[in-house]
Amino acid sequence: MIDLPQVVKEAVSVLGKLPGVGEKSALRMVTAMTKWRLEDLQKFSKATGSLVNLNECEECGMWTDEKICSLCLDPKRADANVLCVVEQVSDLLAIEKSGQFKGRFLVLGGVLNPLLGIGPDQLRINKLLDIVGLHKTQVVVLALNPSIEGDATCAYIKHVLPNEISVERIGFGMPIGGSLEYLDPMTIGKALENRKSF
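RESULT FIELD:
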């Protein structure tokens, strides 16, 4: 087997850390980049290097250039008494893209997982309690993934929130255009749990 130059090996190794990118995909990316103009490679390098300066919103945990993100500064959301709790920024972006939620957000930063040493202190649970008290939140929507860890995190959050707060969980089940025969048992189970009157 051919021994690739060290600079190529390092680039493949770094790109291989991205989710869903294996060694072959990373090598294809590096191969494509070797055909880029010098200016494009410099822009790519500068853009990815600048990620070290990315801030998290002090309120919700979303990415921002300032201390507080544009979502938290939005006056329409500032008065909202509904808070949506998500696991990661990518989940917030997916919900925001749907255009169906107009309340406030909180990025937990993960879910409870004792095997990995992730307890309540490693998540933004205290920030959640602060926001609920400060903004007079009436409804907390838990938009955490349906997993053992996600379910345990939802149960913990419901336990620590004041009783007068209404706690809801987003529905899970069949995707639009999906076919039952191709769905896994957990997805079908969640679809049956979340059935509604028609």
